[in-house]
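Office hours follow-up: a student asked to see two folded examples consecutively, so here they are.
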Amino acid sequence: MKKIILLITILTITAYYGMGQSSKEITSQNQSWFSINTLSRLSNRWGVMADFHLVRRNNFISDPRFYFARLGVNYWLKDNISLSLAYGRMWVAPTMEGWRTYAKENRVHEQFQFISKPGKLTVVQRLRNEQRWQQKMVNDEPSGKLRFTDRVRYLASVNIPLFKNKNLPSLALADELMLQFGKEVVYNTFDQNRMFIGVKQRISSDLSFDIGYMRVLQQKYSGYQYDLYHTFRLYFYYTPDLRKYIHQQHGHTGDE
């Protein structure tokens, strides 16, 4: 647990180091982030994932920021170790005054995830590599050109029970650092840091949600300009285990 806390602290300090320097321009904004995240286990090895995200900005709900949908497959090496491959599509709302056209982004990710349970805690560590093709906009229209970047993300999260009763809320802490690479990434190899604190609530064995505050720091292409988002976050998680049902209906899946 001490190592995990130390790691989260290092990520956070690294992300925010130098923010107080006068050469930095930081714009603070409020936003809200809602999502539905699903992971359905179909066999001992295979499953499917799907999620949808809606983010709004300016006083939390007044203006859209982006919509994001993703679909992929999950492969379990062990019950606590998994790999995933997924495709996502993002629609990014314009920030220029008077513009109305959404920029599109296509994204593919490869992911490794490890879950451990030291004592009563649940620790999730996730390493994700994303390839992103972002549409370039000129005068509120697609330019026909794409910006390609490769982004590496590392997430460390801890779930801390506050009560003996599993149906009561637990404390959720997380920090995610994102670095990006590519020929067009000149001044902003650091892309984002997302730090979250909130509570997680179990609704049933398959359904839960977390709610709380997420601080998002994002560096712009200029290198000296940053957006700091104070975010209200509400994530729902639906994780049904369909192995027993599929086995009863169709017999062995063949991958045991």
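And the second, which I mentioned at the end of office hours:
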Amino acid sequence: MTESLGTALVAEMARVRDKLLPEYIAIGPGGAPGAFMMRAELDAAAKALAEGDIVAIIRSYEALKAWKE
């Protein structure tokens, strides 16, 4: 069974929030710009889900998926 876009976005949000964001924060000042951008993308994704804006959901999913480990 395939995953819905909403479920996939929530999974990407969790991956970025729980795994990548703490790594960027731990870097210190050098990681601050990346952490700021991640937080902005996470906020945009949460807003897209709350509003049910499919175009914004797709954009947020692709943006979060682009963050590599």
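Two things to take away from it. The CA atoms of residues 12 and 66 lie 10 Å apart. Helices lie at 5-27, 32-51, 54-65.
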